[in-house]
Amino acid sequence: MTVQQPPAELDARVQRLLGGVELAPLRLRLRRAIERRIDGAKGPSMLLTQLSATEHEALALLTGRPTGTARSARIDVARLDAALRDAGVAGSLREVLEQIDGPIASRTADAAAKQAAWSALSAGAGHDARLHGWLQTPGATALLKRLTRQDVLAADRLLAGADTVLRRLPGAGMTRSQLAAEALGNAHALDAGQPTASVVLAAWRYCEVLATPETGVANAPTGADGSEAGPPDDADPQRAPETRDREVWARAGVLVNELARPALVLNLPALGRSGALWTAGEPAYLSLRLLLRAQPQWSVQDVQIFVCENPNLLAIAADRLGAHCAPMVCTEGMPAAAQRTLLTQLAQAGARLHYHGDFDWPGIHIANHVLRTWQARPWCLAAADYEAATNNAPHARRDLADSGPEASWDKLLAPAMRHHGLAIAEEAVADALLEDLERIRTITR
After folding, report:
1. Are 326 and 444 in contact (CB under 8 A)?
2. Same structural domain, 337 and 437
3. C-alpha–C-alpha distance, residues 186 and 366, integer Å
4. Whether the Cβ atoms of residue 355 and residue 310 lie closer than 8 Å to each other
5. Is 304 helix (H, G, I), strand (E, B) or coil?
């Protein structure tokens, strides 16, 4: 409890009896005792122990008892209340304490009122449907309490701000700072770690889990509080929380650092002005800003597009095949916001995605993610392809750990990798991949 300053009109006798900062601990103990009595504690008296000399003297003056050296005192509440009334000081001890430090309420009733307030808040009445849905999850109230330090009024204000933001989503490529300024009056109110941003992202992630896009493109599964909760192979400790948040904002049509890690592509078919953004046969970078603000008109219905993990492979394909290479996209490791946005756009436009990556444990982890999220097909990623690659491997020293994720598309691949213990880089099998890239392009021309 925070001890309040006594009001100007406080009775001087009350102030002399029990006021002052030095007696604040005693008043707090008396208030707690009265709270317990309000909540049904039995007995006509209260026992106070471990009293200081100052506190014992104050109680002696209050009760009319002689001052002594005892460290404890038992107070008959009814008699004390009667003595205070007879002296014309106050109607009761409770009234004295309330004059000095404010009202004393039932702790049980107060707790019940707070619980009712949180329950009403969690009902989400009148909020955006996405926010309302998230509020029904078990983790939602826990997150709100953590963000607001269990202040229900602050939580109500927080939800109002999140509701205002969500009603503007999805955006059309606006920046996060612009959204924050227009919706909340503060350009930094949606920065990483800000409470409103945490609630908006949690609600958006939750609704992505529930959504079932017609294209079959899945979104990363998440927990009720918005934290990523996919299978073990989908956990990526190398990706910072701000990076993951940036990808969620991108899926909501909001730009955060929109020029970071653009998507590397080669020979992607597009209509009109979109196709003029890159030169046939030459690698090109597509920023998240471009993909969200001026989404290209992809002409990829039933077109086979080959997705690789490493930019060196795409560069080799451009050098050797140029404009005769099948369309390619490079994830450059685990796809970030721009890569995720591009792959989603291509999948929704009807492209048939094929994926290849490194034969190592991080590569299997990335492949599991890409195949699951965008319904891609494995491209030269079977156990037989790995066995063939080990025959031409330039090294014979084991460089793979004994454990790693299982390959979701081929139950024999991970055991084969554990058996040989060799990591095979994507560039090491470039010749076999280039044959596919040239053959597919020739067939579809």
Report:
1. yes
2. yes
3. 37
4. no
5. strand
Q: Quick one: what percent of the chain has pLDDT higher than 70?
A: 81
Q: What CA–CA distance (Å, rounded) separates 168 from 164?
A: 7
**Residues 360 and 410 reside in one and the same domain:** yes
Q: How far apart are CA 98 and CA 93, in angstroms?
A: 9
Question: Is 127 part of a structural domain of the chain?
Answer: yes
Edge-to-edge strand list for the sheet holding 328-330: 284-286, 263-266, 328-330, 304-308, 352-356, 377-378
Domain CATH code at residue 376: 3.40.1360.10
Residue type, 120: A
Determine the Cα–Cα distance for residues 143 and 195; give it in Å rounded to an integer.
Answer: 10
pLDDT of residue 436: 92
Residues 134 and 142: their CA atoms lie apart, in Å, by: 12
Note whether 274 and 348 are same-domain residues.
Answer: yes
Last residue of a domain, one of 105, 139, 168: 105
Please spell the DSSP secondary structure of 337-383, one letter per residue: HHHHHHHHHHHHTT-EEEEE--BSHHHHHHHHHHHHHH-PEESS-SH
pLDDT, tens only, 168-215:
998 888 888 889 989 998 888 999 889 999 999 999 998 888 764 443
Which residue range forms the structural domain that includes residue 86?
Answer: 12-105
Higher-pLDDT residue of 143 and 123 is 143
Distances (CA, A) of 210 to 49, 245, 342: 58, 19, 22
Q: Please name the residues in contact with 41: beta carbons below 8 A apart, sequence gap of 6 or more.
A: 33
Do 333 and 416 reside in the same domain of the chain? yes
Q: Give residue-wise pLDDT tens across range 97-109.
A: 778 777 777 666 6
Which of 204, 219, 252 is the last residue in one of the domains? Answer: 252
- The arithmetic mean of pLDDT across residues 285-303, rounded, is 89
Is-contact 389 424, C-beta < 8 A? Answer: yes
Same domain, 248 and 339: no
| pLDDT level of residue 237 (50, 70, 90 thresholds) | very low
- Judge if 188 and 62 occupy the same domain: no
Considering only residues 81 and 442, tell me which one the structure prediction assigns the higher pLDDT: 81
Task: Tell me if 269 sits within 8 A of 297, measured CB to CB.
Answer: no
Supply the pTM of this predicted model: 0.56
